[in-house]
Design goal:
360 residues, mainly beta, five-stranded antiparallel β-sheet, 6% helix, disordered N terminus
Length: 360
Amino acid sequence: MCHLRKATGLLVIAAMIVTLISFQTPLAHAAGPLQLTGALNGVMDFQLSPDGKWAVYSRFVNGESAVQLESVALTGGVPHHLADVVLRVSRSYGNPRDAYRISPDSQRVVFFGQPVAAPTSGSAAYPGYGLHSVPIDGSAPAQVLADDPHVHRFQFAPDGQSVIYTSGSDVELGFTSQSYQFELYQVPVTGGSPQRVNIALTPGLSVAFDRWAVLSSGYVAYVVGSLSYMSERSFGTPDLYAVPLGAAPDQAVKLNPCGGISLLSGLTFASSRVVFSSIDCEPGNVIRAVAPDGSHGVRVSPTGMTWYLENLIVSKDESHVAFVYRENGNPQPHRNLFIAPIDGPESEIHLVREGDPAGV
């Protein structure tokens, strides 16, 4: 019994010592934050590389009007200068143009701007700007992808080997629906001649520069119609198309079966599906999910719904679609929330909640 008491006492003392040490010795992973840029660096916006090793950021240079582009390793070190001038953007306000994007393999940065600041002239909103590609570590000079000051939005292809972008009217200078004119192009990330992606356009028609997507399944989905732009977004009831990356433009497939789609709230993209609301072959406001090759179309909205579609989203795992319909013609409209499997069947469309005038 005496030996047992001694052993127990020693265990208690050992436990107390371990506890005391744990309070006095900080954990390795509990280190404080690491400052990556200098004091008063003027960082305006930043993105993290997909591999988690880099931060790319734009910064306002004190005493100058230019916004520069730099990168820095997340482990710290000297920042790398990537460009003298890039588009001035911030998360605090919208902008119709993209400033920069990091490639899926974290090796390159594509930006809209000037690698080396130069005097500019002309009437474009961003004269002298263009689309450029540079290694993320700044180890080589930037190369031009499109010597075009009218570039607006751009995305990498899933394999990172090319960039797709819209070019057209300068939104910032204002335009009417007659002058809204954009097209989609694809260019290799190592440079080359840009190739048109969208179908041939007749006068009065345009690609919506802000409502298109590169799908991870290898397609580009985009809309074409007579469009206008206000309140920082495009409006209209265009047709919806999709085409495989690298295919001829006339290989595009029209995805909406009958009337035009609703751009205001009735279009969203998943990796292998496009979900949209349109004036359908059936009565009512119909939401459909369809593969980008036009197959496997599924109705995901309840039959005969005539209310206004207010919101439409795809779940993070892309298994379901959720949407809110708002009652028409009522000063205090009711709102109903629905959910449906993105692949169907229609029998699994469920009303989640019936809203009141306060909303869902």
